[in-house]
Amino acid sequence: MQGKRESIDSVDGTEIGLLTDGAGPPLLLVHGGMCRLERWAPLWPLLTARYTVTAMDRRGRGSSGDAGSYRLDAEYDDVRAVAEHLRRGAGRPVDVFAHSYGAVCALGAAAQGAPVRRIALYEPPGPQTVPAPWLERLHAFVAAGELGRAVGSFLIEVIGLPREQVLAMRDTPMAYDPLPIMANTMPREAEALSTLDLTALTIAVTQPVLLLLGGTSPAWAPEITRLLHEKLPESTIAVLEGHGHEAVDLAPDLVAGALGEFFADA
């Protein structure tokens, strides 16, 4: 991924790393769990051809710093701080596309009044995503240093990937090692989800929202997506048939097309 690297300070002083490239209206990308901003590589050339795209490293990974203790609303502050930084540069509110846990962060930022014009969210998780038995297994794996088993458990039990696909991923080269990210961030993010009231975040969100949903995603994804659709007054659902939670990686053309239609509809 090519672009200009910079960083800003969030509300609590945590440094948030950014990568920006492209030309056009401002678009902010907020990644999900167990990854960093390089996860947008499949979409990057498609989006930078149409927008000035900024991808942020969420706190605790990549080029971003971290705080001594974790608060989910600090992640809302991070997204809001980046959006305000981009608005100052562009002279207009930004559009946002956020995936999975990042979608929760983006929704929370919008609820806090971030300068956002339109928001596209791909399958934000909630308490349904992290049932107590799985959460206990996650903590046990991480405590025992069995990070590979923790990753496999997440991908198979939570994301719904076939076991064969997860085994094949072990031999796939990656731009970064997900295991340290898993150890540092997954337990705390899963704990935050377990008590999250997603509907409370929707009360103050008045912007148009696109809810992207994979047609083959695990049961928690359509449940939460439909719940948000009921609560968000200006929301629409777009189902990507034949794809699951990872369509950003496996069907970037399809995702980019849906985003292009939504962000152009002003």
Kindly describe this structure.
This is Pimeloyl-ACP methyl ester carboxylesterase. It comes from Actinoplanes regularis. One of its GO terms (molecular function) is catalytic activity. The protein is of the alpha/beta class. 44% of the residues lie in helices and 18% in strands. The chain is built from 11 helices and 8 strands. An 8-stranded mixed beta sheet has the order 1-2-4-3-5-6-7-8, sandwiched between helices.
Short description:
Helix content is 44%, strand content 18%.
Which helices and strands occur, and which strands form pairs?
Blueprint: E1 4-9, E2 15-22, E3 26-30, H1 44-48, E4 52-56, H2 72-90, E5 94-99, H3 101-111, E6 116-122, H4 132-143, H5 147-158, H6 163-169, H7 178-194, H8 198-202, E7 209-214, H9 220-231, E8 235-240, H10 247-250, H11 252-264
Helix pairs in contact: 2-3, 4-5, 4-7, 5-7
Which key features would you list for this structure?
Pimeloyl-ACP methyl ester carboxylesterase, about 270 residues, alpha/beta, about 45% helix, AB_hydrolase_sf, 8 strands, catalytic activity, eight-stranded mixed sheet, about 20% strand, AB_hydrolase_1, Rossmann fold, AB_hydrolase_fold, single chain
Give the total of beta strands.
8
Average pLDDT metric: 94
Task: Write the CATH fold name.
Answer: Rossmann fold
Total helix count? 11
Low-confidence stretches are: none
Q: Which CATH top level class fits?
A: Alpha Beta
Q: How much strand content do the residues show?
A: 15-25%
Name the CATH superfamily classification: Alpha/Beta hydrolase fold, catalytic domain
- Proper CATH architecture: 3-Layer(aba) Sandwich
Count of distinct structural domains: 1
Structural class, by secondary structure, is alpha/beta
**Rg, please?**
17 Å
The CA-CA distance between the termini, in Å, is: 29 Å
Spell the H/E element sequence. Answer: EEEHEHEHEHHHHHEHEHH
Q: How would you sum up the global shape?
A: globular
Helicity range of the residues?
A: 40-55%
Instruction: Strand order, main sheet: write it out.
Output: 1-2-4-3-5-6-7-8
